[in-house]
């Protein structure tokens, strides 16, 4: 969005040959808007649970959709860098942290929904249940790997770790998304139902494939 | 000494049993009576006969039946609502999402309909649906249904024992198994192109399982003909096995000497056995089978309820599996 102040005829500096427009991505409302957008699935699920409009099995609907949204937000987070480079939009980088934290928000809800709605918050049962089932173990591992990423997402953590070490740590998001995909695939494999899994696999394949291609080109 | 064989808990007359919601309010009722509002308080007792019956939803053609006298055929548990029973379905020919069948099954044509009886029988025959509807008296039976996915319902079916049909076609000495072939018509079923399973969907029972009076050939639910998404016009309801063992929209029943290759067993033998009896002690590789969630009844934060051996029908069917290792033959 463009404000009158920024329109080309009032904003250009006298020396600039081409008037530089500020990207709408830098608008002060951009981040709050993204924050609200990220909360919409949560609001929709919360409302559905309250009004009982999530179908005959609301517990299953909550567990599944919070998982779906985790995977979607991981994909969106991983799309930031390729989009930033391809579309020459450096301003996109400002949204990466919030998107990543939203992925973490939904994985926490996902784990909470499983622990509470499926396992009745019975810690003993959860501890016995997870290692018994490979697909649950893989999902749990992805969740655990996301904790240090969320915990080191603020500026002071980046300073304390140093940019290099911080980046190295945050590369584990690639492992997270692959484990998440495997978790989803294994869950769906129980019913031989791979259509949706294939869509996510294709998206994640493109996002990670681009990074490999990009790295090879630079070296 | 006991001379009566143990057949589990037999209800005398279902309508004599006070609904749980009423008897749990006993103290409250006594208090109310003491306060002089006895008349109002007693309306719950007066209504208890009515509460024991399933009210017709008035959506489809009526299909009345008399209350079944088969032991174990009528559970007194709270019925799952008609809306949940008819909107949360696994019927992959109409889509893999549970809401899909209710949306898509309108394209299923249930008339004319025939069921062919083939194989090791003395009297093979192609039955017209109308003939099947009149073959034996319709009975009302309220069964628990336990899905392999870990949820359950309580459904008032209308139909008669499969054994009624089997007796009429006279299986030969070679008949050891019964195969149920369901409709697989791409013109009526939009998801037949998906490669989730090999179509048509095939299920099977051992002959003695099929002859157990609880194995129901169902034509209706809630006092009306079956909705398409629930397997119209004729399906199986085998209450002690996971739901997928009960084929929907059956077109062929074949008697064989070999164990039929059933669809899920074919797709993933290590996950779905031929028997697939409800068994809380044998977990599915991907999830526990020890507990279940009763659809529409257990609150969102309620602890899941314990799953019963043979879905609570052990007294009626346990003897079928005497001496079998149910961990191996799951």
Question: Which SSEs are present, and which pair or pack?
Answer:
The complex is a heterodimer of chains A (219) and B (330).
Chain A: H1 30-51, H2 58-86, H3 96-118, H4 123-132, H5 134-151, H6 155-161, H7 163-170, H8 173-189, H9 195-218
Chain B: H1 20-23, H2 26-34, H3 38-46, H4 48-52, E1 66-67, H5 82-87, H6 100-104, E2 114-119, E3 125-128, H7 129-134, E4 139-146, E5 151-161, H8 162-169, E6 177-182, E7 202-206, H9 207-211, E8 216-221, E9 224-225, E10 235-237, E11 250-256, H10 263-267, E12 291-294, E13 305-306, H11 314-317
Parallel strand pairs in B: 1-4, 2-11, 5-12
Antiparallel strand pairs in B: 2-3, 4-5, 5-8, 6-7, 6-11, 8-9, 8-10, 12-13
Helix pairs in contact in B: 2-3
Describe this structure in words.
The complex is a heterodimer of chains A (219) and B (330). With 219 residues, chain A is mainly alpha-helical. Chain A has one domain. In chain A, 72% of the residues lie in helices and 0% in strands. Chain B is of the alpha+beta class and 330 residues long. In chain B, strands 1, 4, 5, 8, 9, 10, 12 and 13 form an eight-stranded mixed beta sheet that branches. A five-stranded mixed beta sheet of chain B has the order 3-2-11-6-7. The radius of gyration of chain B is 21 Å and the shape is globular. Chains A and B meet through α2 and α3 of A and α5 of B.
């Amino acid at each position: 969005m463009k404000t009158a102040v920024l329109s080309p005829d009032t904003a250009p500096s006298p020396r600039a040959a081409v008037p530089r427009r500020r990207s709408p991505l830098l608008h002060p409302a951009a981040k709050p808007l993204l924050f609200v957008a990220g909360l919409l699935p949560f609001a929709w699920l919360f409302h559905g649970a309250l009004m009982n409009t999530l179908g005959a099995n609301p517990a299953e609907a909550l567990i599944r959709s919070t998982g779906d949204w985790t995977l979607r937000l991981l994909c969106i987070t991983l799309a930031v860098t390729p989009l930033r480079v391809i579309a020459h939009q450096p301003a996109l980088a400002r949204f990466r942290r919030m998107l990543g934290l939203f992925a973490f928000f939904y994985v926490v809800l996902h784990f909470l929904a499983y622990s509470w709605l499926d396992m009745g918050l019975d810690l003993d049962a959860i501890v016995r249940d997870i290692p018994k089932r490979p697909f649950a173990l893989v999902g749990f591992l992805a969740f655990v790997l996301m904790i240090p990423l969320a915990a080191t997402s603020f500026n002071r953590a980046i300073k304390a770790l140093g940019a290099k070490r911080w980046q190295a740590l945050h590369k584990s998001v690639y492992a997270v998304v692959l484990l998440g995909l495997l978790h989803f695939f294994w869950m769906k494999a129980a019913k031989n139902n791979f259509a949706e899994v294939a869509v996510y696999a294709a998206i994640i394949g493109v996002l990670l494939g681009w990074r490999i291609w990009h790295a090879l080109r630079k070296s | 000494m006991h001379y009566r064989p143990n057949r589990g808990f037999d209800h005398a007359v279902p309508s004599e049993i006070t609904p749980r919601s009423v008897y749990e309010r006993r103290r409250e009722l006594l208090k109310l009576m003491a306060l002089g509002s006895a008349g109002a308080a007693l309306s719950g007792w007066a209504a208890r006969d009515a509460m024991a019956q399933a009210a017709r939803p008035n959506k489809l053609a009526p299909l009345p039946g008399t209350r079944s006298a088969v032991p174990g055929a009528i559970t007194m548990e709270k019925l799952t609502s008609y809306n949940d029973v008819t909107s949360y379905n696994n019927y992959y020919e109409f889509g893999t999402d549970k809401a899909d069948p209710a949306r898509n099954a309108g394209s299923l044509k249930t008339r004319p309909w025939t069921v062919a009886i083939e194989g090791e029988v003395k009297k093979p025959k192609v039955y017209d649906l109308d003939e099947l509807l009149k073959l034996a008296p319709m009975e009302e039976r309220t069964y628990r249904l336990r899905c392999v996915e870990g949820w359950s319902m309580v459904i008032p079916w209308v139909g008669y024992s499969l054994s009624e049909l089997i007796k009429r076609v006279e299986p030969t000495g070679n008949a050891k198994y019964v195969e149920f072939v369901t409709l697989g018509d791409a013109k009526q079923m939009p998801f037949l192109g998906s490669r989730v399973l090999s179509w048509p969907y095939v299920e099977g029972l051992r002959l003695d399982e099929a002859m157990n009076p609880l194995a129901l050939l169902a034509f209706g639910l809630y006092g009306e003909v079956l909705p398409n998404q629930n397997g119209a016009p004729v399906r199986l309801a085998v209450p002690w096995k996971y739901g997928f063992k009960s084929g929907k929209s059956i077109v062929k029943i074949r008697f064989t000497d070999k164990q039929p290759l059933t669809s899920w067993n074919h797709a993933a033998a290590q996950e779905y056995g031929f028997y697939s009896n409800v068994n809380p002690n044998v977990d599915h590789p991907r999830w526990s089978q020890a507990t279940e969630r009763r659809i529409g009844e257990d609150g969102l934060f309620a602890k899941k309820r314990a799953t019963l051996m043979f879905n609570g029908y052990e007294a009626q069917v346990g003897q079928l599996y005497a001496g079998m290792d149910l961990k191996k033959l799951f």
